[in-house]
Amino acid sequence: MGEPAGIGGEITLKAWLARKEATLPAFFAIDDPDRLRREAAREGLAAPIETIEHPGQAQDVFRRALPVLPLRLPGTLEPGKPDSANAETVLTSLRRAVSLAREGLALAVVTNPVQKRVLYAAGFRHPGHTEYLAELLDSRQPPVMMLCCPGLRAVPVTIHLPLKAAIEALDEAGIVHAGSVAAEALRRDFGIARPRLAVAGLNPHAGEGGSLGREEIDIVAPAIERLRAAGLAVTGPAPADTLFHAAARERYDAALCLYHDQALIPLKTIDFDRGVNVTLGLSIVRTSPDHGTALDIAGQGVANPSSMIAALRLAGQMATKRLQAGIAEAGIAEAGKHKSRKTKAGHVEAADAAQGNLV
Questions:
Q1: For residue 222, what pLDDT band results from cuts at 50, 70 and 90?
Q2: In terms of Cα–Cα distance, which of 230, 198, 204 is closest to 216?
Q3: Which residues 6+ apart lie within 8 Å of 11 measured at CB?
Q4: pTM of this prediction?
Q5: What is the DSSP code string of 86-152?
Q6: Rounded to an integer, what distance in angstroms lies between the CA atom of residue 257 and that of residue 56?
Q7: Backbone angles phi, psi at 35, to 5 degrees
C-alpha cells in the first residue's frame, strides 16, 4: 500500500495499465479498493479494480483488472496530506504481504513508498521498511540494500547516516558482510555464477597511499582480502571518481560503496527514473521504487511509474531465478527424483498458480 496520501496508488494503477508493453508479471495490491477507484477516477486512469478473496484468484483477474486484496483505511484520504490514523493499516498491509510471501502465496513483495514521519508518530520504531522486514522475517543477519538501474548495481555499506557518522561507523566487518550478502544474492537472485565486486575507496584518489586518509589502508583493503580469501572476485579500493563511467562498469557486477550518496548519485545520474531499491539477505524477494511518496504531486496524475514498473519487473526476474535455483538444488539433493517443469519460454513454473503473483 505505502503512504495513502502519496503517489503509490497512482503508480500502481499506471503499472497495471502498462502491464502488456512492459511485460510485467501478474501482481495484486493489498489496499483499499475504494481508494484506488477514486484515485483512478480523479486522474482519468482507465484501470478497473476487482477485489479478490485469495491470491490464487489474482492470475485470472489480472488480465482484465487490477486485483486487490482489500484492506480498508480508517482515516482521511486527501492527496498530499497524510493522516496518522492510517499508519497502522499501512503497516498491516506490509505484514500481510510478508506473510503471503512466507507462505508461498506470492513470489515477491514490492513495497510502495511510506511516509516515515507519519509511522513514527504512530509509534513505529524502525528506521524504515528494510529493518521492519528483517524483524518480520526473523532474519539472522542484517539485511543489505542494493540499488539497481540498467547498467549499475550499487550496494551502500552504510546507509542513512550523517556523513561524519557514516565514516565513523565504517569498519572491516561491515564491508565483508555487505560484500558476502551481495555476492550470494547475485548468484541466487540474478543468476551470476561468478559475481565480480568492485569496492570504492572512501577518500579522494582512494586515499593516495595514505596521504589523503588511511581508511583504505586500515579498513577497506583488509576487508577486500577477507572477501578474496572466501573465494570472491573483488577489486579495489578504487577511486570513486573513476568507478562509474561506462567502461569501468563493464568490469564488475556490483559496486560496494561506502556511504549513501556514493551509491545513489551515480545510480540516479545514470537512470533517474528506473532506479529500484532491493533488499538483500531476506528469505523473500523484496523490491521497491527508488523514490519517496512525492506528496507535492499526489493526486495530480503526473507521477512517473517507471520506477514501480522496473521494481515489479525486477522482482519477477529475481523470484524466477530464486525458484529455478531452489528447484535445481532440490534436483541435486533428490538425485534425479524431482524433475523441474518448464514453460515454452524456459521458465520454471510455480507449483501453484497463486505462487506466480507478486504483491
A1: very high
A2: 204
A3: 112, 289, 303, 304, 305, 307, 308
A4: 0.90
A5: GHHHHHHHHHHHHHHHHTTS-SEEEPPP--HHHHHHTT--SSSHHHHHHHHTT-SS--EEEEEETTE
A6: 40
A7: -60, -45
